[in-house]
Amino acid sequence: MWGLALGCAVAVGLCTASTAAQSAPVEQVRAAGRAVDFTGAWKFALVNKTGEDAPQPDANDPAWRDTRLPHDWSIGLDPVEGPHTGAGTGFLPGGLGWYRKTFTLPSSMAAKKVSIEFDGVYMDSEVYLNGVLLGRHPYGYTGFAYDLDAHTDGTPNVLAVKVRNQVPSSRWYSGSGIYRDVRLVVTDPAHVTRHGVQVTTPDLANTIKSGYATMRVATTAAAENSTEAEIVSTVRDPRGRIVGRGTTRAALAAQPSTATTDIRIDHPALWSVDRPSLYTVDTEVRVNGKVVDRVSTRTGVRYFSFDPDNGFSLNGVEMKLKGVNLHHDLGALGAAVSTDAIVRQLKIMKSMGVNAVRTSHNPPSPEFVKACDEMGILLQVEAFDTWRAPKVKYDYGRFFDAHSSADVREMVHAAKNSPAVVMWSIGNEIPDSSGAAGPPIARKLIDDVRAVDTTRPIVMGTDRYRRVPAVGSPQDQILQMLDGLGLNYNNASSIDELHTRYPTKFFFEAESSSSTSTRGYYQDPDQLNTGENHTPGKRNTSSYDNNLETWTYSGEYGLKKDRDRKWFAGQFLWTGIDYIGEPTPYNVFPVKSSFFGAVDTAGFPKDFYHLFRSQWSNEPMVHLLPMNWTSHKPGEQVSVWAYSNADTVELYRNGKSLGERKFDTKTTTYGAKYLETTEATGDDKTVTTGPYPGSYTSPNGSAGKLHLTWSVPFEPGRLVAVAKRGGVEVARDEVRTAGEPHAIKLTPDRRVVKADGESLTFVTAEVVDRAGVVVPDADDLISFQVRGGSLAGLDNGRQESAENYQAASRTAFNGKALAMVRSGQTSTAITVTARASGLRTATTMVAAIGGRPGRVQVTDPAPGTPVAPPAVDASYSGAPGTIPAAMLDGNPSTYWSNYYLKRATALLPAVSRAHATDWVSLPVRDGLAGSVRASFLADASHARPASIAVSYWDGSKFVPVRDAKVEWATEPGKPTSITFAPVRSDRIRLELASSAPGTAQGFLGVSEATVGR
């Protein structure tokens, strides 16, 4: 469909409605091409947020709103707790919506075949033309089309689309509505059918040795009345030059038939991840010498192999799949497709060293496939997250038996000409695959794929092969049918066992790691796994690659496991980018996005991004963590890590060297060089023998880490890492101590944009001090104003947030926020202004090309509401039921505690280690405080604090009180009394030191606490 000629002129006029509420535009379609963009001049009405069935609102109902497609109604709603929302889908409602479009067709189309194509509607859609049902399409991720028997005499036609998203219909945020493109297709009675051109390059691995490729073009066409036709295919190279032509004859009839021609292409430019060269095939249907239809198809010339012993190769060059999983949401845009947003995401992934994407767990948009074709990113395209057995109440399992065959074929047809696609996946973590129903379903899906395409292998992603399946079991039968298998979270020994048992199948990691992290948050660097902070407002996870659920493992473990096995084709990290929904490890409002990404939802890299960049990118780099060199106490020991692809890194603090750290150069058993330290890692309890028991051990007998470490006493100033190769500096990174927030800094990702009403500019807002250093813990509320365009969405990458994605203001998170700005059509410039109370205002400008004169559109910021500090707070709460509010509820049986127990993983033991210190803060009711009474827990896990330090909030920071005295309780359950010189404040903080840090007995707990005069 990318070859469709989009040259049709569309004129939009207005008709007078019976009420002011209904001023419905009528699109007057003029025939000037094969395809007509049909995304403008729609009306939308959200009938309910529950998904209950309901009729279309009356045409004059004030609920109708002007809408342009693609459109996701859920992303503009507030996240809420309720019976029709949940953490899995980001607390954003679905519901029932109706779309309506009025249009006229000219009389010249009376003899034409007219159809409407939808690339994706989520979900359970019904399409009506002039009140007549055209069809129903339940799956939200595949395209579909209907023929239109529309008026062509000037009478208005009304197209209505009913969309029903009953939540939960997915395990992640799906979006709701007509969220992908829509077009009219206008052809003569003799025409190429939908998806009717297929281009392949048979035997390319051999013909390329002789300097040519055979491009086989199979064209499926039909005619309402039988006719003889000539089908001509013309091939153009990446520079637009004609390099080949083929002609074949076809007898066309109402039943489509396929004609094939072979075209020789001499010295073709091969498509690769580094040079994604694209060819165009122009296919014409000629009847009696007249061209009656023309379709353009983009494709590439390349060959690849998945070898069970040697892994993946592209054009004869062996390489690892350095892949990521990506869900389809685009952050603050939700599911609504935007080419600019897709390209931005993929550019960020490419900069990490990524060369492949798995479309988890559904077919992607055509825009996504097109971007991968153009950017050189390999694709595994996946069909389903569920077969017959559902995973959530309203998912696709309801429709699988009736619709899966058509949907999987549609998936293949839509992307069959893409050079980026190298695998088809028939499902992810399918419950049916373990039962008797699994093999017959798998057989049918495999046959459906091969009915369309026989050139690519068929796989599935699975968590059900962590042990070798029994001979003849459903898992064994399915694997025997598949070409290869994508494993989800298998340890190193299990993949070796599978490789031995199935030597003719290829293996890769369909989901690797699932280590969770929050940008800019750090905890327990000396631990391989650690607990979560359940304090409201602080629900984050550590960026030291050390927050792991029971089924997951660290990023470093996955990288080493993949690296050490030539036969292992590669991995797809779970995930490249945080996505809305599935906020593991938290399941509480308002935590609404995942923690799995190497990059957050705003597109800001986390430390995890730099780990993978150090292993996947050849460009010299070094990255320091923590990225926060501000929020520490003088003299505090800080664990400093460096990720680098250089062998040596030297660390400097305020110009003084703190020493070099070096990686050892090692060699895999198949001869590949790599960098790694040599030390016990302790990250694989399944290893019980050898020189490094309890550690991941490479087949060459070594163990080590993929990062370098220093323990550095904190001193304000500048920390600099200098990476060296052969003693010569090749890269550096630095972190600086920030002062007080002073100003906002705006940085757009481009300086020129098209004034087409669709193009996006991504503007990063940073809170900086007077020296321009980003303040790493700044959370100022920033309001945005746009002239010459509009705000498309705001984000900050924070997982725990109830802010609306499409509001006009957003709090900074760890110093940053993002504005997505949509261009207008009536201005030559877009101006973005950002304001925050107490900070210097910032303005940036982007040139808009092609704008026409008219009134400049202005988006004014809505008044923002700063987030009030909590009445009671704590640095860390170890469990959902032991949060700070429990200290004030008057119930001595409830309590705040920093106790946590992190469950064992497949590779790591359970962990429960008390922090050295934590703090709690309490409200001062009348503004004057001179004492605190606190009842501390003392039991098998909790002990009385070793010491207590008291401070008060002076309006900008916590300041120690004077003359503090502690009178410890002499009996269990009795309060400890703390007195101090009276202070005026609204908050008192108690910093509590553990009496047994690092043990399971030194945790802290407070059942009741009060502040007095």
Fold and architecture overview:
With 1013 residues, the chain is mostly beta strands. It is 9% helix and 37% strand. The strands form 13 sheets. Strands 1, 2, 4, 5, 6, 8, 9 and 11 form an eight-stranded mixed sheet that branches. Helix 7 links the parallel strand 28 and strand 29 (506-513). It is globular. The termini are far apart. It comes from Lentzea atacamensis.
Which strand-content bin applies to the residues? Answer: 35-45%
Extended strand count: 59
User: Percent of residues in helical segments?
Assistant: under 10%
Mean pLDDT: 95
- The 3D shape can be described as globular
Low-pLDDT windows of residues: 1-22
- Helix/strand-derived category reads mainly beta
Largest sheet entry: 8 strands, mixed
- How many helix segments? 9
User: End-to-end span in angstroms?
Assistant: 74 Å
Radius of gyration: 31 Å
Identify the notable features of this structure and list them briefly:
single chain, 1013 residues, mainly beta, 9 helices, disordered N terminus
